[in-house]
Design brief:
mainly alpha
Length: 341
């Protein structure tokens, strides 16, 4: 503001350069606001720039808190507490602060903090980072569904899901396996778990099955069903990879779409509840091969005759999806089932 008002004195912060793209954007935005204020507001109140500059210089003060300890734990505790009083931190910043406290090595803390900041920042196109889709949506649903619970619509639900689990001081942990539903260990395990799962999600969204699903069920309320089907398909992918992925999509869609064909209205919370009660993720977890899982879900059926309105439009989108995946389906019985859909 002083710069916009023409102040020529010492302004060391003006010379600072920031690495964060978000910080640069905020600074540029606020600079523009200051310039607009200086050019328009002062004219309307008939106040000289020099008078306002003097008022700011004489009356504006800043409080500076210097943390003398070199420990990251104290710095991040203070950081979290201070931010909770003003603009709240998002779940991912809070998780970073939380898990860094479990790491004793300061070089490792600095490395992981920097890596996490890059990992959770939007890309050059402003798109949401994949880790936020992975942890905040797909894995969050799967972890809750494994407990027979829907995802609660509460503040900081993502943070609460990935905080460090309690341990007994005299009984050591026995190492991570990087399974989606495993207990979260405090510290470096969380960061490694996040990167491992996000890497899996990155490859999953490049599959033909995921692409066909989101491309064909993207309109109207179809997208609610696509979200649940895609989440369960990701759970299957984490267990079996690309093995019979198209066939798994067929049986998962078949079961979740039963809700669509039975209801004219589609509410996301009700579809989420239906997906939870289907126990499909538990069946995936229990299966020792794709054959057992696919055969189990093939037992269910839905009625698609005499469909009208949105249910008929949904059904047409599903059929288009399978036409797109025709070459991916190798199991003859499922191929025949699709032809009769």
């Amino acid at each position: 503001m002083l710069e916009a008002l023409g102040y020529k004195g010492c302004l060391p912060l003006i010379e600072e350069r920031f690495l964060s793209k978000e910080a640069k954007e905020h600074i540029a935005y606020n600079k523009k606001l200051c310039q607009m204020f200086a050019s328009k507001q002062l004219v309307s109140v008939n106040l000289l720039q020099e008078d306002l500059r003097n008022k700011l210089l004489e009356n504006l003060t800043f409080s500076v808190v210097v943390i003398t300890s070199q420990k990251f734990e104290l710095a991040y505790t203070f950081f979290s507490n201070e931010n909770s009083r003003g603009k709240a931190l998002d779940d991912f910043n809070l998780l970073k602060a939380h898990h860094l406290r479990y790491i004793d090595s300061e070089p490792q803390q600095e490395h992981l903090a920097t890596r996490w900041d890059r990992f959770t920042s939007p890309n050059e196109y402003g798109e949401t980072p994949e880790v936020k889709h992975t942890l905040g949506q797909y894995l969050l649903r799967l972890r809750k569904w494994m407990q027979g619970e829907v995802v609660p619509q509460t503040k900081y639900v993502v943070r609460d899901e990935y905080v460090a689990a309690p341990v007994l001081d005299d009984v050591p942990g026995f190492g991570e396996q990087f399974q989606f539903n495993e207990t979260i260990q405090g510290g470096s395990h969380f960061f490694a778990y996040s990167e491992k799962m996000t890497g899996q999600y990155h490859y999953f969204i490049s599959t033909a099955e995921h692409t066909a699903l989101v491309e064909n069920l993207c309109g109207e309320s179809h997208y609610y069903y696509a979200e649940m089907i895609d989440t369960l398909l990701f759970g299957y992918y984490l267990k079996f990879g690309r093995q019979y992925l198209a066939e798994a999509l067929f049986v998962i869609e078949k079961n979740i779409s039963a809700h669509r064909y039975a209801n004219n209205r589609a509410r996301k919370d009700k579809i989420m509840e239906f997906a939870t009660k289907s126990h499909i993720i538990m069946k995936i977890d229990r299966a020792t091969s794709p054959s057992f899982f696919i055969a189990d879900l093939m037992q269910s059926d839905y009625i698609t005759s005499e469909l009208q309105g949105i249910r008929q439009r949904y059904h047409e989108c599903v059929k288009n999806m399978y036409r797109q995946l025709k070459s991916e389906i190798t199991v003859k019985s499922i191929s025949n089932s699709i032809k009769s859909v």
